[in-house]
Amino acid sequence: MSDATPDVGGAAAEHDGPLIFLIAGEPSGDLLGARLMAALRAETGGRVRFAGVGGEQMTAEGLESRFPIHELAVMGLIEVLPHLFVILRRMRETVAAIRTLRPDAVVTIDSPSFTLEIAQRLKGAGIPLIHYVAPQVWAWKPWRAKQIAGYLDRLLVLLPFEPPYFERHGLATHFVGHPAVESAEPAAETPSGEAGPPCLLVLPGSRKGEVKKLLPVFAAVVRDLAPRHPGLKVVIPTVETVADMVGEMVRDWPVPVEVVRGADAKASAFRQATAALAASGTVALELAVARVPTVVAYRFAGIVGLLPPTLLGVPFVSLANLIAGREVQPEYLQRRCRARFLLPAVERLLSDPVARADQRQGYDGIVEALTPPEGSPSRAAARRILGVLGDRAAGT
Fold it and tell me: Does the global pTM surpass 0.90?
């Protein structure tokens, strides 16, 4: 779409419900935004309008994005610098569009370095500012909780232990559940990955910087596994922003590799997996919900990447481990994110049914802990947003 102010229906659209301006900056937020749009339509009987910034998932739900979100899918100071002027321009354009449109609410989704900057610039504009997915202040930068409480009106969080970090600073915060449970399927009594040749899922992240750091390490693990596991198959569920890069990087792998895109293909891959080697993040939690035995690895970017993991404010990086209260998914971070450390852990999950069963048992209770009273996280989030609009209409 062009940079002109988006058409949201003209005068006739004034009778089609509230206008909500949504902003997502990366694929995980795009999926959240798409599910939220569908839930808002369901809750309002279709009487709601949307404008904003999103990716292919939100586009499929009818959003005309002001620009492609792949422009924002960068991380770390070195990677951001070449894109800085584009990002700043997109910030200015987005803020200007919001001030012109005067939506009934702005909902920013994850990607805090972009979305929360926009929210901060809109403070005092008289538009409710709602952020969906809290910054991980419990892991690092705890001072940010007080900072964002100074300009947000409402915060929707994914993890049950997050509200107190923000409520103590006066920010109305609601646990709405984690999207990993949204599409969770009942686990089969005998996972399909237990029969036939082993299938390893490889998930190197959804951003180019992550893929560049992690996929070469994961490739070395696969090369060492290949002669030990005849018939080994690798499936890499990925997203549009990095799919081509991943495809190029796995061309010379010594085993069959299938690079798949889309939610259905990802769910199918999870069902057939024997085990997974995954970047830390939302996908590791999705694997836990799907009961896929998983090894987690990560190398942090920027200043955080220079710190030893022991200086983080939490005992684990994997959300599944944090919720379980112990290391269910083995974690290999920073200097330990190397093939020689990862190989034995992945090898154990591929070779040992007891190890896989033990990890699945460790996943017990995670889905329950991540599910809101409404059952659906998207429905819970939609109801909270509509509640803000209702309060505003009532003058409260």
Answer: no
